[in-house]
Design goal:
7 strands; alpha/beta; Rossmann fold
C-alpha cells in the first residue's frame, strides 16, 4: 500500500470507528440500566441485529452450559500467566470484560482501550472504587491512533480484531505496539469456511453494525502471519454451530444435546490443526516475529 493510499485508508477507517464508537456508547448506556442486554436492546440496533443478538445469547448460554467458555478462559489466562508482571494491553476492554480482572491480576501494568467513552468511564469508576487504579490506564480512543511510550508484552483482544476492515493496517499497527517475543491472544470469528461466508453474506445487508463486522478470511490470516507466528489454539463451530442454537430451545435441546456435545468435543480436540480456520470461532496464541536487537 502506497504512503498516500495508507493515509487515506487510515482516515477512512477512523471515520468508520467514530460511528462504531457511537454504536457501543449506546450499548454501554443500555447496560447502565441492565447488564449484558446492550447489544440487542440499544437504540442503534435494528430488528435483524436484535434477532442476531438473541441467537448469539442462546449460543453463549449453550457454551456456558457445556463448559466451552471455561476451556477458552483457561487457555487465554494461562498464557497471560507466562507474561506475569509485564505490560498488558486489552483491546476492546469496554466496561471491563470477563477477562479484565485476571489480566489485571497478572499484569505489572495494564492498559485498556475502547472506542466507547461511556464504557471507559464506567470501567474507570469500577477500578477507582476497588482501589486498583494505580496500575491501570484506561483510554477512550481508537487503537490505530494509540502510540504508547513503551511497547507491550501482551496484546489481548477478545472478539475485537474482526472489527477492522483492513487487516493490513491492523496487524502492521499491532506489530508496532508489541515487544519482541510478545504474544497476541485473540478469539475471533472466521468465515474461511464457505458455508459461514454464505450465511454472513445473506445476513450482512441487514446488520446495524455491518461497517465494522469483518470475520477473518484467508487474507486476514496472511497479514497476521506476516508479523506473528501462531503457536497454539483451537476452534469450534465447523459442524456444531447450527446445533448450538437448537441446544438453547426447550425439548429440541434435550434431543440434540448428545450429538452437539460430541461434535463440539471433537472440534475442540483437533486443537491447532490445518482445518482450524474452517470453524466459526478460533482462539489463538501468537508470538511476535520481531527479533530482539543487541541494544534491547
Amino acid at each position: 500500500m502506497m504512503k498516500n493510499d495508507r493515509g487515506a485508508e487510515i482516515s477512512r477507517v477512523i471515520e468508520t470507528n467514530k460511528k462504531q464508537a457511537e454504536f457501543y456508547n449506546n450499548i454501554s448506556l443500555k447496560e447502565d440500566e441492565e447488564l449484558f442486554t446492550g447489544y440487542g436492546r440499544n437504540k442503534s440496533a435494528n430488528f435483524m441485529t436484535k434477532l442476531w443478538a438473541r441467537l448469539r445469547y442462546a449460543h453463549q448460554d449453550a457454551f456456558e452450559d457445556i463448559g466451552v467458555d471455561t476451556i477458552k478462559e483457561t487457555f487465554l489466562i494461562e498464557r497471560c500467566k507466562e507474561k506475569s508482571g509485564g505490560r498488558f494491553l486489552e483491546i476492546g476492554c469496554f466496561r471491563g470484560t470477563r477477562y479484565s480482572d485476571p489480566i489485571i491480576e497478572y499484569a505489572g501494568a495494564y492498559t485498556g482501550i475502547d472506542l466507547s467513552s461511556n464504557a471507559i468511564s464506567a470501567f474507570q469508576d469500577t477500578v477507582e472504587e476497588d482501589g486498583r487504579a494505580s496500575k491501570i490506564e484506561l483510554i477512550a480512543g481508537d487503537l490505530l491512533q494509540h502510540v504508547p511510550e513503551e511497547k507491550y508484552d501482551v496484546l489481548f483482544a477478545h472478539g475485537v480484531l474482526h472489527h477492522f476492515e483492513s487487516p493490513e493496517l491492523l496487524f502492521e499497527h499491532l506489530n508496532s505496539l508489541i515487544k519482541p517475543g510478545g504474544i497476541l491472544l485473540c478469539a475471533e470469528p472466521s468465515q474461511v469456511n464457505n458455508f459461514f461466508k454464505f450465511v454472513r453474506f445473506l445476513y450482512r445487508p441487514f446488520q446495524s453494525d455491518k461497517d465494522w463486522e469483518w470475520p477473518f478470511t484467508e487474507e486476514t490470516i496472511n497479514h497476521m502471519e506476516k508479523y506473528f507466528s501462531i503457536e497454539s489454539g483451537f476452534g469450534w463451530g465447523k459442524y456444531s454451530l447450527p446445533l448450538s442454537l437448537a441446544h438453547a430451545v426447550p425439548f429440541l435441546g434435550s434431543i440434540f444435546r448428545p450429538l452437539y456435545v460430541r461434535l463440539l468435543k471433537a472440534e475442540l480436540d483437533e486443537k491447532l490443526s490445518s482445518k482450524v480456520w474452517l470453524n466459526s470461532t478460533v482462539v489463538l496464541c501468537s508470538r511476535s516475529k520481531k527479533i530482539t536487537s543487541i541494544d534491547e
